[in-house]
Amino acid sequence: TITVSIGQPIQAAGLKPDQINQQVEHWIEQEMTQLEQR
Q: What predicted TM-score, i.e. pTM, was given to this entire model?
C-alpha cells in the first residue's frame, strides 16, 4: 500500500531557503508520525 499525503501550501515569500527547509522538515516529521499510527 502506498499512502500519499499533501499538506497546506507553504508561505515562502520573504523566507530564506533554510527557513523553508526547516518548515518542510517539520511537516514531514509530523506527517510521518501520523502515518505510522495508521
A: 0.79
